[in-house]
Design a protein that fits this description.
The chain is α+β, with helices and mostly antiparallel strands. It is about 30% helix and about 20% strand. The longest helix has 24 residues. This is Putative polyprotein.
Length: about 900
């Protein structure tokens, strides 16, 4: 078959399938010359001439006795070839042997022949011209013809063996760089082999190229050819490295006396080693003579760091021993123990073998810190892009986010903090009332505290009354209240109440109690006091609270030197008179007073014992937060609940990455959490200490590694967690629907049976001032979305058929023709069932949707129009 030549379409070349003949041919071996030696020899001389034989292989005749063996069958008949073809397996070796025989007296003196390429070099112009004439005469005598277009005589720049040689040195052929840049991802092992071969030919010109190629080489083995994201990243990285070195020139080493010193700079990574031979006065600003890189095999990757660093230097010296042998050079690396290499007395067997090879070279070792080793930046930093490692490794570094103090209030009790201590053992006060929770109310400015017992069953309304009794009657209305994300502090009643009275609510970021540090610190102090004051059965803590509160508020603050009472009231309240004596004493009264005195004394002593010296620099154990809006970060999982049966120690340490969508400028960030986390009620604002830096994953460094764990963090009661609050209702004489807001942000209509067991129903009733569902008004709330209304009615219908409905159970809709879940057929015994006549997204008011809904009174033949849809009495049509 004849096809146009790629570089010269005006000429044709013969393509013959000779695979069967080559399999039956005895192979001939003839070694080719060293390409790097040719390039270095040519670049070392001033004058260059390049010649190329025209159709070189076809100038080589086939022996007359072997012509019949060249027969090829075609549709037009059998053809034989009188000359050799490019497909013949022995053609390159035969032609190279011919060239070596013809020019044996001149090769390496002033010329090289690499197959059909003839290159001549010399520093003397006159001698060079004489050599050109000599070579042409030999070719004429042997009847070998040159290609005129490819003839380059005294060219300042010659294209030889895939490289360009000019006065600046050696660089890659731009055509080869463009070819690799436009290379499509391989789809088979054979195509990958071609790509690796083309890139490997340029390894001496590109820094650390073989390290990246090493991540594709496993596909050349006996494994399934699977081109994944890892291989694609390595493929793109190889092309990018070659493109970056497009205009890079390698220089020749100068061995003359007085020349600049020679340096060998090496480094290693987890999967490969790299080196560069450079020359110059300072190794940082020297010219590169050659690059070396290699992939570590499985055994070498298990070497100690010391041995891998040593291996990098050894392999580079052996690879370029023609450049470094009998030459003094300096070995530069960032592994300090190697400076004692030659003085090491105890060597392993392997190290002894390596030292035997290293002793052939004349070098000295120089250590440089890693930060100064600019040639080793990417080799040493690959673990930063390790996502599988990031999400499972514990973070032992300083936490992100320097502590920012809260805004300082202008006067006492302008800003307060509220928190709960629970659950506690049930304890009774003097009246016999039982309590199991303590409400801690702290003034942010002076740290004065009120400790109030309560019950864990208190609702938002009762907590509001408690705060009103303890704070408002003593200190007035606060302007700000700081709290965590307890359900009581996020309820509609609590939010609407403080919006009406003008108090601003400040909620802490998720899992960061340091936001309300004053209250959290007071919790610790109060807990320590309780430890020392209560009895062994822990049932009398309620009666100890007054003495503990008085002791805390009467203690002198280390920061101010005043008691909390004095800072609030400008005087110190009068305490017990311990040594008073009465002429007449009653035993019961004295016993009671001693009991009170004992409680107060214990409280005072416990406060003194719990005082710890204030840390002046809390930020010693923290570092500034580097995050900005738009960054991707990992989120710590230490505060997330795992599904039952799973262990936190074996779970991922971080999940993500997630995008930062808002920076509050106080080390708190809002993340773009996925819908499944929002549906579980996770708050989207987090403090910097719970975040971890994300580096764009370049997992080509970890071929074949997969993420085996799925980040599935569940909750104990997913139904209660997922539902946020009820925002509206609609009721008739028989049925009640509630519009429920889910923590994912969605809103759906649920019937009474679906919400009766949830706390949000009680909160909703308290908010609208009703004691029970029966007291809700009979009305029809207009729905703004037709699909919402239809979904609510289907929910109602299915709840009549099912005794217990699952919360959040989704209904499937058809896109255009109606519903997939058809309602049950109506019978006279079920006058309130839903009858769906027709529904279509293209329906117009002239073709109304007719349906019978539960809240229409059929006896009075009511009609209604809800949001553009006609709802009619159709009892007479059936």
């Amino acid at each position: 078959m004849f096809i146009p030549k790629p570089k010269n379409p005006t000429k044709l070349q013969i393509i013959v399938d000779l695979r069967a003949r080559n399999d039956n041919t005895k192979k001939m071996a003839s070694p080719l010359l060293d390409i790097q030696a040719i390039l270095n020899k040519v670049a070392a001389h001033k004058y260059h001439t390049m010649m190329d034989l025209d159709g070189a292989y076809e100038q080589l005749r086939v022996h007359s006795n072997h012509v019949d063996w060249t027969t090829v069958t075609t549709p037009d008949g059998n053809l034989v070839s009188l000359v050799v073809q490019q497909g013949d397996c022995n053609t390159p070796a035969s032609f190279q042997a011919l060239m070596n025989h013809i020019f044996s007296s001149y090769i390496r003196r002033f010329m090289y022949v690499y197959l059909d390429d003839i290159v001549m070099f010399l520093n003397s112009l006159a001698e060079h011209m004489r050599h050109i004439k000599l070579i042409i005469d030999i070719l004429k005598q042997e009847k070998l013809y040159l290609s005129k277009p490819k003839l380059q005589i005294l060219a300042p720049e010659i294209d030889i063996l895939g490289h360009i040689v000019d006065e600046n040195g050696i660089k890659m052929d731009p055509n080869k760089v463009d070819s690799i840049a436009n290379w499509k991802p391989p789809t088979s092992r054979e195509l990958l082999h071609r790509f690796l071969g083309a890139c490997g030919y340029l390894a001496d010109d590109v820094d650390r190229l073989c390290v990246s190629m090493g991540h594709l080489s496993p596909l050349m083995g006996k494994v399934p050819f699977w081109w994944s994201f890892t291989e694609q990243c390595a493929f793109e990285d190889i092309k990018a490295k070659i493109a970056e070195g497009r205009d890079f020139h390698r220089v020749l080493l100068n061995y003359n006396e007085g020349a600049d010193p020679i340096w060998l700079v090496t480094n290693r990574c987890a999967t490969g080693i790299g080196a560069a031979i450079i020359q110059g006065r300072d190794w940082k600003s020297s010219w590169v003579a050659a690059f070396y890189s290699a992939k570590l095999n499985n055994a070498q990757q298990n070497y100690a760091i010391y041995e891998i660093e040593l291996l990098a230097g050894l392999e580079a010296m052996c690879h370029y021993q023609d450049m470094l042998f009998w030459v003094h050079f300096t070995w530069v690396m960032d592994h300090k123990p190697l400076i004692h290499l030659r003085n090491q007395k105890v060597l392993s067997w392997q190290q002894a073998c390596w030292m035997e090879k290293l002793n052939k070279f004349d070098f000295m070792v120089q250590y440089v810190p890693e930060v100064d080793n600019v040639l080793a930046d990417t080799l040493s930093q690959i673990y930063k892009a390790d996502k599988p490692g990031t999400v499972v490794k514990p973070n032992n570094q300083l936490l992100y986010g320097l502590l920012n103090p809260l805004e300082i209030p202008s006067y006492p009790w302008q800003m307060i903090g509220i928190d709960f201590i629970r659950p506690l053992p049930i304890s009774k006060d003097w009246n016999g009332t039982e309590f199991n929770t303590i409400v801690v109310i702290t003034d942010i400015l002076t740290s004065m505290v009120h400790l109030v017992p309560c019950q864990s069953t208190y609702k938002a309304k009762q907590i509001a009354e408690l705060v009103f009794d303890e704070v408002y009657k003593r200190h007035g209305l606060p302007e700000h209240i700081i709290s965590d994300w307890d359900k009581l502090f996020t309820s509609i009643f609590w939010e609407q109440l403080h919006e009406l009275i003008g108090t601003k609510l400040k909620l802490s970021s998720a899992f960061h109690p340091q936001t309300d540090g004053a209250t959290e610190r007071m919790n610790c102090t109060m807990t320590q006091c309780l430890h020392q004051c209560i009895s062994s059965n822990q049932r009398d803590w309620v009666t100890k609270l007054p003495a503990i509160e008085f002791a805390i508020n009467n203690a002198t603050a280390e920061a101010t030197g005043y008691t909390l009472f004095f800072l609030n009231y400008r005087h110190i309240p009068r305490s017990f008179i311990w040594n008073s004596v009465s002429e007449v004493e009653y035993l019961g009264v004295r016993t009671y007073l001693d009991k009170l005195k004992g409680a107060v004394m214990k409280a005072h002593n416990s406060v003194i014992a719990s005082r710890v010296k204030q840390v002046r620099d809390a930020n010693w154990q923290r570092r500034p937060s580097p995050f900005v809006k738009g960054d991707l970060v990992y989120l710590s999982t230490k505060n997330l609940t795992l599904p039952k049966g799973l262990a936190h120690k074996l779970a991922l340490k971080y999940i993500g990455p997630y995008k930062i969508i808002k920076n509050f400028n106080n080390n708190t960030y809002r993340l773009d959490l996925p819908s499944h986390l929002k549906a579980r009620g996770m708050h989207d604002s987090f403090y910097a200490s719970l975040l971890q830096v994300h580096v764009p994953n370049n997992d080509q460094w970890f071929p074949g590694r997969q993420e085996n764990q799925v980040a599935d963090f569940g909750i104990k009661n997913q139904h209660k967690w997922a539902v946020d609050k009820i925002v509206a209702h609609s009721r008739n004489s028989k049925h009640t629907l509630f519009k429920t807001h889910w923590k994912s942000g969605d809103q759906t209509w649920l019937n009474y049976k679906q919400v009766v067991k949830l706390d949000i129903l009680t909160d909703y009733l308290d908010t609208i001032g009703q004691a029970s569902v029966e007291e809700l008004s009979l009305d029809i709330r207009v729905c703004n979305d037709e699909e919402e209304l239809i979904s609510a009615m289907i929910n109602l219908m299915t709840s009549d058929e099912t005794e217990e409905s699952n919360i959040g159970e989704s209904m499937s809709f058809s896109n255009s023709t109606g519903f997939k879940n058809s309602p049950a057929k109506t019978t006279p015994s079920q006058p309130t069932d839903i009858i769906l006549i027709s529904y279509s997204n293209t329906q117009t008011p002239s073709q109304p949707l007719k349906m019978l809904i539960p809240w229409l009174n059929l006896e009075h033949k009511s009609y209604a129009n809800i949001s553009g849809w006609q709802i009619a009495d159709i009892s007479q049509e059936f």
